[in-house]
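Section 5.1 Outputs to date
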Amino acid sequence: MPGDLDSETAALLRMVVLPQIEAASSWGDLVMRLREKGFGLGFRAGRMILNRLDSGAEICTGRSLGAPLRGLAARLGRPALRLSRDGLSARLQG
């Protein structure tokens, strides 16, 4: 799992990413909104992980941003995931 963010990085990420998460009307919409900001989503061990599109580096979990997977699933519906071969990680289908 990604490590803890320092408070300044966490605050900046929340300013950029959290409005996109809160405005999303579906999982597909969320992916498009994050892509416009240079971010992507992954899932591992039951957690949603924000990553950088340019390098694939994992940044933080949704909970670290104030947007845990449980809350998003309640609002957007359960995400349709495609499980990776390792059995622990997944990507959104579609």
